[in-house]
Every structure is written in structure tokens, then in C-alpha cells.
Design a protein that fits this description.
Helices cover 26% and strands 28% of the residues. The protein is of the alpha+beta class. Among the domains are: 137-303, no CATH class; 306-397, Sandwich (Jelly Rolls), CATH 2.60.120.
């Protein structure tokens, strides 16, 4: 077991309080802190000390992949940790985005390389994600139904939006949603400023009125402060708006359009950088490729964890992917087996204190905001203590009913 030195990503949308508070540092931090990375991703591998040497988790995995990851993981994913565990602290809205599945990523990356290597694909991996809220977390996740999206637009009473609403009501399947999205993102350049201004003003008027979609209108006015004039503000009204309670989670499947608006949560994702954006960003928006990858049928219900049979209080968030699985344990004074029991694991103490013990007498104490790597070769680990412990592993070893 190795105590990790996670990497802080200082993106502009991050909080100056949440990660510092979690790690018991001075508040506020000197600048925004958006993400706490606990993994072996090349763009920010966590540090550790082993046998007196200062290394990164990426170094450790590369030196002996089968010992660190296990034969099953190496056979399926190669000599790399297939997931990245983060704490995400969004003080401002992130971009609206979508990620490819494995087949799409492999084909697109290969074609991009054959064409000279320039394009939106950073690698040939998928990027599904699971977000578990630590505080109330506001999100846009998946499309609304065609009927609901049309109703949200019509309620604003704007003639400029009538063509978009007409596409939705005339449609016979979910493809009308991506057509509506494309229509918004390809709005005539000479009319974009007026469209966005009218929508934001109308949403501000609706934000104070009681109704089923008040939260969505209020979100537009909040996002407009940080992304003025962005067509993503209009596109967001096509998406389902919700606020997760602490402890609730969302699984973002490939093809699911989404944006994280505000909150703190544990995020577990496949170790990929493939992102296609559709708004709330200054980065490139590749509309044709975005529309090709987006699956309008993806719905994003709240993912309830399932209690794992056996001693202790451990739950797992079932996700239909092989790259990762997330376990949540509430340790007690009685030592219980750490789950998952095999494969590469990254454990994060989100609250309280957790004590991990190995069969050889090794002991590692995790306090709130600290994390560790448990290699596949470390078996028979137990955990005891208080608070909440998240453990990321591969989906290859998930305990299913």
C-alpha cells in the first residue's frame, strides 16, 4: 500500500475553498483548485514514496505491470491503470461535452492518425464517467424528451426559438433532439448575439417564477455570467437539469451529452482525454463530429448504489463498463475486508479516518482528503475506522448479484 501525493489541477472553474478544506489546508487557497487527481494519468500522475525512492504511480505501474495491476487487467487494458479517480470542485460551470465509446474512439483516432494526426481525439480510449456528489451538485445530464424540450423553449415566448421547437414537435424519434442541437450550434453568425441575449433575458424572467423548469432557467442565468454570448446557454435548455443530493451519483455513458454546473463530487472515469464540446467553452466546437458521437437516446437517471453481501457496510455503484467500478464503505471499529479484494485499487478517505491493514502487519491510516494505491499483489487487506472511504477498482472484479 502506498500513500499518494495527488495532483491538483488549477483550472479557472475550480473552487478556492473545497479542496483545501477537504485536505485540511488553509482556506482560501491562493488560486482556483478544480480537480484532485489520484491516478497514473500521464498528464498528472500522483506521487508516492516506495523503498525510499520518490516516484509517480505511472513509474510504479510501468516497472511491473502484472504485480501492480494484476494479470486480468493487463490482459484487458495493457500496462496502464485503466481508470482515474478525482475529486471535482466546480465553482463555475464546465463545458457541455460528450465522450465516445471504445469502438468510436479506436476508429476515429486511427483515421485521425492516418490523416496527419490533427483532430479532436487525444487517444483511442472511451471516457465513461461516474460522479458521486459530496455536496449538492447541479448538473445537466442527457437530453430531455422531445416534448419536454419543446415545452421548455416555448415557455420563453421567443419567436427566434420557434424553428427549433418546430423541429422537436415534428420529429418522430430522438434524432430530432440532435437536429435541434445542431440547429442551435450552427445558428447564423449575424444573429447569434441577439438570440443568446433574448434567451438569457427570458430565462432571467422565468427564474423567479415557480414551475417545473425554474431550476433550468436559473442555471442559464448563472452560466451566462461566466460564458456570456455562448450558444451553449441555449443548447442547455434541451438537456435535463437536476441537482444531486450528497451521496447520489450519475453514470455518464458514452454518447451522453452533459455538463457539471456547480458542486463537489468524487469522479471516476476511464483514463482518457477524449472530449467533444458543444458549448460553455472557448475551445473548439466540432459540430459535425459532436452530433455524430452524441446519442440522443441516453437517459441519465440517478444511480443508486447496491449493498455488497458480506461483513461491513460496503456499497458498489454498478456501471456497465470494464474500465472501472466505485465502492463506498463506511468503516466501523470492526475490521472488514477491503473491497474490491483484487486488481489495482485507489482508496480515498472522504471523511473521518480509515485504517487499512495487511496480513503481514502493514498498517496505513487515511484521514479525510488522503488517498492510497493498493496494488493487485496486496491481498487480504482489511479496513476499520470511521467516516467514508471510496475505493476505485476495475469493473473486471466488481461484485455483482
Amino acid at each position: 500500500m502506498d500513500l499518494l501525493q495527488p495532483i491538483i489541477k488549477p483550472y479557472a472553474w475550480g473552487s478556492r475553498e473545497e479542496l483545501a478544506r477537504l485536505q485540511n489546508r488553509d482556506v482560501p487557497s491562493p488560486g482556483p483548485e478544480a480537480e484532485l487527481w489520484m491516478g497514473a494519468h500521464p498528464s498528472g500522475p500522483a506521487g508516492l514514496t516506495r523503498d525510499g525512492l520518490t516516484l509517480t504511480l505511472q513509474d510504479v505501474v510501468a516497472q511491473d505491470p502484472e504485480r501492480e495491476l494484476g494479470m486480468d487487467s493487463v490482459a484487458r487494458f495493457g500496462a496502464r491503470l485503466p481508470f482515474l479517480l478525482k475529486v471535482l470542485a466546480a465553482d463555475q460551470p464546465l463545458s457541455i461535452q460528450v465522450h465516445p465509446d471504445r469502438a468510436q474512439a479506436e476508429a476515429a483516432y486511427k483515421a485521425q492518425a492516418a490523416g496527419g494526426g490533427q483532430g479532436p481525439y487525444a487517444d483511442d480510449w472511451p471516457k465513461p464517467e461516474l460522479l458521486c456528489a459530496l455536496t449538492p451538485f447541479e448538473v445537466l445530464a442527457g437530453f430531455r424528451t422531445r416534448e419536454e424540450a419543446a415545452s421548455v423553449l416555448d415557455a420563453l415566448g421567443l419567436a427566434r426559438l420557434a424553428p427549433v421547437s418546430a423541429l422537436l414537435t415534428a420529429g418522430t424519434d430522438d434524432s430530432a433532439l440532435t437536429l435541434a442541437l445542431r440547429t442551435v450550434l450552427e445558428w447564423p453568425a449575424e444573429d447569434r448575439v441577439a438570440l443568446v441575449a433574448e434567451v438569457v433575458d427570458a430565462c432571467a424572467g422565468k427564474a423567479e417564477e415557480p414551475g417545473a423548469h425554474t431550476g433550468a432557467y436559473r442555471a442559464v442565468t448563472h452560466m451566462a455570467v461566466h460564458h456570456p454570448g455562448d450558444l451553449g446557454l441555449v443548447a442547455s435548455l434541451l438537456m435535463r437539469h437536476q441537482v444531486l443530493d450528497a451521496g447520489q451519483a450519475l453514470f455518464m455513458a458514452a454518447g451522453g451529452l452533459h455538463a457539471y454546473v456547480k458542486g463537489v463530487g468524487v469522479e471516476l472515469m476511464a483514463a482518457s482525454d477524449n472530449v467533444l464540446r458543444s458549448g460553455l467553452t472557448t475551445k473548439e466546437v466540432n459540430v459535425p463530429e459532436l452530433v455524430r458521437i452524441t446519442d440522443p437516446s441516453v437517459r441519465v437517471p440517478v444511480a443508486a448504489p447496491r449493498t455488497v453481501d458480506g461483513p461491513g457496510r460496503t456499497e458498489v455503484f454498478d456501471c456497465p463498463v470494464e474500465e472501472f467500478a466505485l465502492y463506498r464503505t463506511e468503516p466501523t471499529a470492526e475490521a472488514v475486508p477491503l473491497l474490491p479484494s483484487a486488481g489495482p485499487r485507489v482508496a480515498l478517505c472522504a471523511a473521518g479516518e480509515a485504517v487499512l491493514r495487511g496480513p503481514d502487519g502493514e498498517r496505513l491510516t487515511l484521514r479525510a482528503g488522503t488517498s492510497c494505491f493498493v496494488p493487485d499483489s496486496d491481498r487480504g487487506i482489511t479496513v476499520e475506522g470511521t467516516g467514508t472511504l471510496f475505493v476505485a477498482g476495475t469493473g473486471l472484479t466488481v461484485h455483482r448479484p
